[in-house]
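Below is a filled-in request sheet from our internal design queue. Each sheet records the structural input a requester submitted and the sequence that came back. We keep these sheets so that new team members can see what a complete request looks like end to end.

REQUESTER: design group, bay 2
PRIORITY: normal
MODE: inverse folding
CHAIN LENGTH: 428
BACKBONE (tokenized):
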């Protein structure tokens, strides 16, 4: 079970505690809720004699979702888990839309500034905003967790270090190729590319084998574009046949396989572009940073017979992974990056023309759009308790987005803020 983060009265992080112990401290008024997400309590009395066990924050960066866990290396216990959903592709689409509108305005005979492409210079190491948003999201949560937990080290999934060559510099030939991690990197790529199913029979949850689309017997190569995954039965049935002959009665499936074999992995490109930038950013925290390959992550997870999820992959990153991870009962915090709103002075229609004014003041009655609030209504048609993100109005009549839908027309007098706007949505 995920534990509760604790800080003392001097804001120093202490050992996370069991949820029942946290409830007892809150009930006895020996502690107070300091932060809702991640849930953190602060002790009201100073306890200088408490010993603190160091934790390790482990990261499995992804193009869409990043796994984050806190692990006690000495006991193997997963103390905290989260899955952070990025908005990189949403930023890319927004920038594309804005660029199209801007070019459309320039093409028309309207009063508008001239192009300034020559005035814009990019510094060394520049990455697109859609890529940097992933780095910033992870950096934000690493620094946030460092404030609330006794973190002493960081592990990041980066690249595969050549551990065989480090241990035995003279190893060569087939012995080098067939080490402990032999084949894991290629298999991991193909699993992501073909959806973890047999490409011929489409059955899931089967042991899969690497298979040549154009057989080696007919001139096929070992290039990654000529490799796919199939179950043993389909692999033997296909034999040395060309894929076009094997699937001549199933043209749609053949077309799909040939298209997938040439399709680039956009997610993989995003991860490859940002991995070293993220490593550089993590080093600025001053903590030692360990890196490990995706193949090593899968090896550790398979060895311990754990299910594949983003947060479990994060727990299996690097050589520091304990022999036995304690993951029972852990429920990850689901985090979705939403951004901090827009700086547009007015909203536009699909052609880029302004249609309505945007108020300058973002805070009304002490609330701003994006705050997570709790409203208890005891009379009227909307009796009940509502918790969710608030959308404010200057009139004081707010909307609250809950799990069951949007509730409109809630007075600001009935709202109590439980978590300030920070650019993220949360779910347990």
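RETURNED SEQUENCE:
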């Amino acid at each position: 079970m995920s534990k509760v983060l604790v800080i003392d009265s001097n804001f120093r992080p202490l050992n996370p505690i069991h949820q029942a112990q946290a409830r007892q401290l809150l009930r006895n008024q020996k502690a107070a809720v300091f932060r809702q997400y991640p849930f953190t309590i602060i002790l009201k009395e100073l306890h200088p004699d408490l010993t603190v066990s160091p934790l390790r924050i482990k990261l499995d960066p992804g193009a869409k979702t990043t796994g984050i866990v806190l692990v006690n290396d000495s006991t193997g216990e997963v103390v905290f888990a989260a899955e952070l959903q990025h908005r990189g592709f949403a930023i890319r689409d927004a920038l594309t839309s804005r660029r199209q509108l801007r070019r459309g305005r320039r093409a028309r005979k309207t009063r508008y500034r001239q192009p300034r492409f020559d005035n814009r210079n990019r510094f060394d190491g520049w990455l697109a905003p859609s890529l940097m948003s992933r780095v910033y999201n992870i950096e934000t949560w690493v620094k946030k967790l460092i404030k609330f937990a006794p973190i002493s080290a960081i592990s990041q999934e980066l690249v595969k270090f050549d551990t065989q060559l480090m241990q035995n510099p003279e190893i060569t030939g087939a012995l080098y190729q067939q080490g402990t991690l032999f084949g894991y990197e290629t298999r991991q790529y193909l699993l992501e590319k073909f959806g973890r199913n047999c490409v011929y029979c489409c059955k899931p949850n089967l042991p899969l084998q690497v298979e040549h689309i154009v057989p080696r017997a007919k001139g096929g190569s070992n290039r990654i574009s000529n490799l796919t995954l199939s179950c043993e039965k389909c692999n033997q049935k296909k034999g040395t046949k060309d894929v076009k002959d094997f699937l001549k009665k199933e043209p749609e499936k053949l077309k799909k396989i040939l298209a997938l074999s040439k399709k680039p992995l956009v997610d993989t490109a995003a991860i490859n572009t940002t991995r070293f930038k993220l490593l550089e950013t993590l080093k600025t925290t001053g903590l030692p940073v360990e890196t490990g390959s995706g193949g090593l992550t899968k090896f550790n997870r398979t060895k311990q017979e754990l299910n594949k999820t983003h947060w479990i992959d994060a727990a299996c990153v690097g050589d520091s992974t304990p022999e036995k991870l304690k993951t029972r009962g852990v429920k990850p915090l689901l985090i979705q990056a939403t951004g901090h709103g827009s700086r547009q002075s007015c909203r536009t229609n699909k052609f880029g023309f302004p249609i309505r004014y945007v108020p300058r003041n973002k805070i009304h009655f002490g609330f701003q759009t994006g705050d997570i609030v709790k409203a208890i209504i005891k009379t009227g048609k909307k009796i009940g308790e509502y918790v969710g993100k608030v959308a404010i109005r200057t009139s004081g009549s707010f909307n609250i987005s809950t799990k069951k839908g949007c509730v409109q027309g809630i007075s600001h007098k009935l709202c109590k803020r439980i978590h300030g706007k920070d650019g993220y949505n949360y779910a347990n």
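SHEET NOTES:
- The CA atoms of residues 3 and 19 lie 6 Å apart.
- Residues 359-427 form a domain with the SH3 type barrels. fold (CATH 2.30.30).
FILED BY: M.R.
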